[in-house]
């Protein structure tokens, strides 16, 4: 039942993403579709929060380092009941609480203003350390991209987290192999990624980030004595074949007549079991 709930939520979230993307005609749709299973696993199965009180002191903290993935997080926040689904239609519009890049000052449930890549894990380390000093059982889950592994500050934070034994900190890295300037391997080769995290002292797991069962098992295996990272290999545009094969997929411009095709492909894939 856990997996079924997560998969159903991820399916609905992907539809939310398409609806928001259509309102602008473009956006970071591919990343949000690819990371939907990761975000659904966190919000449906793992995170402790109160939808009617996003600032509840006892909540787990979810930090979105990659601010341009905000469209995906908004879909998760709507699924979690923290924001109203109808508000998603305002995505990216003037005066909206849902800007194209995540802003903590605007959006309920958005813990940090992400987008300056490499800052998220540093904030997460400080937050996890502070929660421990307060005696709080809350966890900090930090969502990173593989592009953020290019940043030296990420690795400084990783070493600091292990040094302080932050067992209340979990990193999730979306490894979709694509950055703004091209394939990740061509911009800066970071593999073998698991070895680098392990060398910093983290518990490391690598899974298919579009496999809900694997994601749930990874969270179940997280230990309490040191920071953990779940490396998630994902596919840009997951669930929509039309977008999975786009050559320029970092920031997608999608023609007006293609949005309904995307929805039909997503629905067909779910009904046929491709997303199960």
TrEMBL record:
Domain Transketolase N-terminal residues, every copy: 10-266
Q: Which Pfam families does the annotation name?
A: Transketolase_N (PF00456)
Superkingdom assignment: Bacteria
The record, for InterPro entries, names:
THDP-binding, Transketolase_N
Q: What does this protein need as cofactor?
A: thiamine diphosphate
Keywords from the named record: Thiamine pyrophosphate
Q: Which SUPFAM superfamilies match?
A: Thiamin diphosphate-binding fold (THDP-binding)
Q: Any idea which GO molecular function terms this record carries?
A: magnesium ion binding
Protein family membership: Belongs to the transketolase family.
Q: This chain belongs to which protein, by name?
A: Transketolase
């Amino acid at each position: 039942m856990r997996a079924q709930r997560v998969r159903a939520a991820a399916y609905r979230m992907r539809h939310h993403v398409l609806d928001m993307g259509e309102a602008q005609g473009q956006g970071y749709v591919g990343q949000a579709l690819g990371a939907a299973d990761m975000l659904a696993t966190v919000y449906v199965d793992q995170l402790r929060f109160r939808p009617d009180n996003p600032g509840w002191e006892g909540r787990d903290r979810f930090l979105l380092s990659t601010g341009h993935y905000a469209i995906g997080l908004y879909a998760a926040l709507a699924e979690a009941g923290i924001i109203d689904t109808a508000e998603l239609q305002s995505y990216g519009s003037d005066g909206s609480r849902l800007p194209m890049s995540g802003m903590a000052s605007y959006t309920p449930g958005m813990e940090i203003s992400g987008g300056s890549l490499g800052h998220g894990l540093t904030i997460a380390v400080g937050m996890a350390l502070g929660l421990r000093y307060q005696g709080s059982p809350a966890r900090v889950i930090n969502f990173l991209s593989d592009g953020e592994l290019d940043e030296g500050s990420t690795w400084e934070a990783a070493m600091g987290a292990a040094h302080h034994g932050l067992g209340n900190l979990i990193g999730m890295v979306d490894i979709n192999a694509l950055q703004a300037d091209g394939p990740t391997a061509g911009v800066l080769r970071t593999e073998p990624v698991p070895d680098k995290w392990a060398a910093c002292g983290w518990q490391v797991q690598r899974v298919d980030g579009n496999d809900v069962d694997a994601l749930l098992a990874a969270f179940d295996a997280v230990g309490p004595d040191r920071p953990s990272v779940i490396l998630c290999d994902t596919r840009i545009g997951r669930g929509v074949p039309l977008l999975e094969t786009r050559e320029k997929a970092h920031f997608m411009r999608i023609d007006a007549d293609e949005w309904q095709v995307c929805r039909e492909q997503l629905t067909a894939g779910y009904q046929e079991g491709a997303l199960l």
